[in-house]
Amino acid sequence: xxxxxxxxxxxxxxxxxxxxxxxxxxxxxxxxxxxxxxxxxxxxxxxxxxxxxxxxxxxxxxxxxxxxxxxxxxxxxxxxxxxxxxxxxxxxxxxxxxxxxxxxxxxxxxxxxxxxxxxxxxxxxxxxxxxxxxxxxxxxxxxxxxxxxxxxxxxxxxxxxxxxxxxxxxxxxxxxxxxxxxxxxxxxxxxxxxxxxxxxxxxxxxxxxxxxxxxxxxxxxxxxxxxxxxxxxxxxxxxxxxxxxxxxxxxxxxxxxxxxxxxxxxxxxxxxxxxxxxxxxxxxxxxxxxxxxxxxxxxxxxxxxxxxxxxxxxxxxxxxxxxxxxxxxxxxxxxxxxxxxxxxxxxxxxxxxxxxxxxxxxxxxxxxxxxxxxxxxxxxxxxxxxxxxxxxxxxxx
Length: 397
What we know:
single chain, 397 residues, alpha+beta, DNA Polymerase III, Chain A, domain 2, 3 domains, eight-stranded antiparallel β-sheet, elongated
């Protein structure tokens, strides 16, 4: 398989002599440290694969550190931690088996040793286990983090942008350019936008100072990478992350961990064209009240469409649904409304996902033009440093 190119623009390494692979790798490592890094990387490992090596971790030991790499050819995670390296070297170990086994060991030091024929011996206290590994030479080469055009992005801002948009990414494989979110970097701001064609989430954070960004830098990040990034950002104390890209690959350095992802190609839609500009009828309601009403009423919505009817009348919002199978339901929220009456239908789960994303607290503003035009929902918080908008196409009801 040497020389074959795969998803990430990765080259599978050519065989190297056993000696340079460190045929007798031997290390001692704290179970807690090892488990923490295995937990961070195991989600990338390919579960069902026709290429067996992708079910393995690559473990490399030198200079009192071990590096752990996992890849599914679309993305990879590389992480490291301190270890006592008695003999430097490298090996690949079945990822799920290693992770599940290390989880079951008691705390303390673990000794890992590479034996003949790629077998791995793992000792901990009175436990002694041998696992069947594979040749390191078969493990795909993962792209190296570039040294140029690296941008530092505030970790908290990026994490918030992901959580406010990731749920709006399309699940339809055929809509390729909608299978990710668009990151928009400017010298003083970062924004993220995602859409599945039925709804669109857009968030912008101003007042940032981003290095190596002139004009506007747009990058389409696949959903899988955003999900991994979200997990890495939730488990780091780092205040900033480093972002870089080359022709094929996106790179994110989060603390001592590096995530790489194959780029999504294609043109993201012109989202600015669908941003509502004449939604002059609005109502402000408590998020908690709206969430409760929608969740109750949605129990009786048509199962396939999940459609609920939102009726705006003098000083009240009526939310209702009905289906021949389950019955009908209506909830009324009293709140100031002084515009013409309006009835509009929405997919209930789209509204619920937005309310969950904002933490179901405070107030939200629902803005409408008419029953046929896109509605806009946003948090009613004038002081917020984030500008967050959620646009939903209406349903025929």
